[in-house]
Amino acid sequence: MTVLSYTDRLSQAASFLRENDDFLVVSHIQPDGDAAGSTFAMAWMLLALGKRFTLINEGHMPEKFMYMTHSQLRILNHETEPPERKFGRVISVDCADFDRIGKVSACFEENVQLLNIDHHATNDDFGAVNLVRADAAATVEVLYDLNVELGLPFSHELNVCIYSGLLTDTGGFRYSNTSPKVMQIAADMLSRGVKGYELAERLLESLTMPQVTILKSALATLGFAHEQQAAWLSVSLEDLARSGASSDDLDGLVNYPRNIEGVEVGMLFKEKKPGVIKVSLRSAGKVDVAELASRFGGGGHVRAAGCTVLGTLDEAIKQVVEEVGRALA
Ligand code: 5GP
Ligand code: MN
User: What average pLDDT does range 245-266 have in this prediction?
Assistant: First the structure.
């Protein structure tokens, strides 16, 4: 197997876009700011290339990300409006592995050609063309490079998407992935007129009433183990229903246990359905949580990862916390 350089991969990805048409663009299930930003950034790039495309996600795209698009750019929810046809050309963005595409893969043709654009170290190059850069802070960082490679203009709409993805995946330019290159791209976006403070207010600061209500009930579940090096919060379906919050409103909750002094691994356990628990893992540095998550069939980054565990909330907490104990030992 030949190992391609990033430059080679950029030119391969550019050719894939130039030589094909009628793309399906998909990000991972339960999209975050980078997944949404990458989906819409890709859309603006494809528009600039004069290509036809369809945007889709397994579920619903949170309303809070819809400022990155406009009425021309619809995004389909596969659960409620699956496309009536199949696609032979797919672009996946911010998906660490094929499973993260979710049920959208049902509308891929059998001999589908997939362009995989991502920044997760655990990405297994599942595409026909793979534009993966593990040291990029966000998938939008890779898309920035791709836009340069394609020689396309940086429209205001595209810039807003790029800045949004960088802002959210770096936790507001604070996490260890905040590289000089991130700051250079962000500076470029600001100098082109992006209002960084408005995006920060919208994506990182503002809280809805359901979000405060769920925060209040989640903080009451705070648990510790392993000499307080592990800490977690949990959210049951009942808590969610009572608060009026949706699972989109749980973004960032995992930072509360993670931020406690002395905590090495912070966790959030979310009951998705009875018996299905989604786990978010954050590390202060000692533990590789991507590796830990992979023991449960998940993945992600060294300091931020996730997985799904079957069982009750208590069972999932017990299993994952035990594994964290082994990783800490
Ligand atoms: P979060 O906890 O915010 O949902 O995810 C943190 C990081 O882990 C993200 O980069 C996300 O892509 C990755 N991640 C979360 N859940 C999963 C999972 O089930 N499988 C894989 N491969 N990655 C995940
Ligand atoms: Mn990302």
Answer: 94
Q: By percentage, how much of the chain surpasses pLDDT 90? A: 94
Count Cβ atoms within 10 A of the Cβ of residue 3 and give its class: 0-12 exposed, 13-18 middle, 19 or more buried: exposed
Does the C-beta of 96 come closer than 6 Å to ligand 1?
A: yes
The segment(s) of the chain belonging to CATH 3.10.310.30 are 209-328
What residues have CB less than 8 Å from 49, skipping those under 6 apart? 17, 18, 150, 152
CATH match of 6-204 with 3.90.1640.10: yes
Q: Per mean pLDDT, which range of 58-72, 126-140, 224-238, 265-279 is the poorest? A: 58-72
What residue owns the CA closest to ligand 1's atom 3?
A: 280
- Residue nearest atom 19 in ligand 1 by C-alpha distance: 307
Decide whether any atom of ligand 1 lies within 6 Å of the 307 Cβ.
Answer: yes
Tokens of 208: 């809805």
